[in-house]
Amino acid sequence: MRNLLRMVLLLFLLPPCQSWAQSQVIRLTNGEFPPFLTEEKEGYGVASRIVTEAFAASGYLVNYGFFPWKRALVLAERGEWDGSVVWSWSEERAESFLYSDPVIVTREVFFHRSTRDFTWDGYESLTGYRIGATIGYFYGEEFHHAQDTGLIQVEHVATDYHNLRKLAHDRIDISLVEINVGRALLKEQLPEFRDMVVPYDEKPVRVTTLHLVVSKTLMDGEGIVSAFNKGMKQIDDTGRIEEIFRQAGLTRRMDHYE
Q: How buried is 127 (Cβ within 10 angstroms: 0-12 exposed, 13-18 middle, 19+ buried)?
């Protein structure tokens, strides 16, 4: 029922000339990554709106299902859903998915308590820190190598929200969160900790592109990705993507968002 309601809502985002009968439906898993992806906002966040409108420009309707991130990926990988939004490239995921052109660029940084000075210069400098990370996220080969070799101590929880709460309560020392996601969570869901938990944005852990991924189990997966890329370029050329960012109070940048 919730997925049906999402599909009905997305109809109102389509151009007037677009009709249900003329459109194909693509089913995508989604999750909580506000302000880019969220079930709590109209249009389901900046990245979801870009994906929805890019597909609409190519004659597709989008039906989103919201899941924990690990499950969202598995459901799409198995072909139970057609694909998922939005993911960074990794060699492991590329074995199961086709990648679109970049949808957004993200900037992952460490958040820390404002009462404690924090700097970092390579993962060797983080020995002894309790680092918060989120289950199902990929933080780059260097980070995961440092974790797997025991150079850094990493504690995983289900969401960025829970990591920031742990940080505020001094249960971890730093937390790795996309900078705009962290700021949005602190502003909207954790306002009592907004002055207590701050980002160290002088040295990002990673600046990366995030993409629509489509399961390789689909017979026309390459055609779907091609149609999406064409639609995204079309709405970008009209200035619509810039407008979506402005409506969310964000500024689109080539390397990060401010």
A: exposed
**Tokens 């001094």 correspond to what residue?**
170
Confidence (pLDDT) at 2: 54
pLDDT digits (tens, 9 = 90+) for 56-110: 999 999 999 999 999 999 999 999 999 999 999 988 999 999 999 999 999 999 9
- Whole-angstrom CA distances from 95 to 18, 104, 143 are 34, 22, 21
pLDDT tens for each residue of 149-199: 999 999 999 999 999 999 999 999 999 999 988 988 999 899 999 999 999
Task: List, in order, residues 6 or more apart from 74 with CB less than 8 Å away.
Answer: none
What Å distances lie between residue 96 and 51, 181, 213, 222, 229, CA to CA? 20, 27, 9, 13, 19
Distances (CA, A) of 210 to 33, 44, 51, 152: 12, 16, 12, 25
Alpha-carbon distances, residue 206 vs 65, 96, 139, 146, 210 (angstroms): 28, 23, 7, 14, 12
Cβ proximity of 49 and 85 under 8 Å: no
Half-sphere exposure for 4 (CA within 13 Å, toward CB): 1
Summarised one tens digit per residue, pLDDT across range 12-33 is 455 444 443 456 999 999 999 9
Residue 172, Cβ density class (10 Å: 0-12 exposed, 13-18 middle, ≥19 buried): buried
pTM over 0.85, yes/no: no
**Residue carrying structure tokens 């249900």:** 20
